[in-house]
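Feature request, filed as a ticket because there's no other form

It would be nice if the structure record came with a short human-readable summary line next to the tokens. Right now we just get the raw output. Example of a typical job, pasted below so the devs can see what we mean:
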Amino acid sequence: MAQTLIKSMKLRLTYETGIDEGGKPIFKTKTYSGVVESATADQLYQIGQALASLSIHPLATVEKNGMYEVMA
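Raw output as currently delivered:
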């Protein structure tokens, strides 16, 4: 049976940085690596909020992204 092994975890913050000519929002992302796998959703959200407080742009989303190796 195949198994997955965690390779890395990242926290990705998306900021709304403006509006384009068509009136649609423009988004920029910032990714932080080295996230501990055991971090809870609440902890990651709090960290995202704290980091976003250092930006002049409003925070749109906080994402946890994982990279896994699938092996037999």
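Something like this underneath would help us a lot:
The chain has a mean pLDDT of 96.
The first strand starts at residue 3 and ends at 19.
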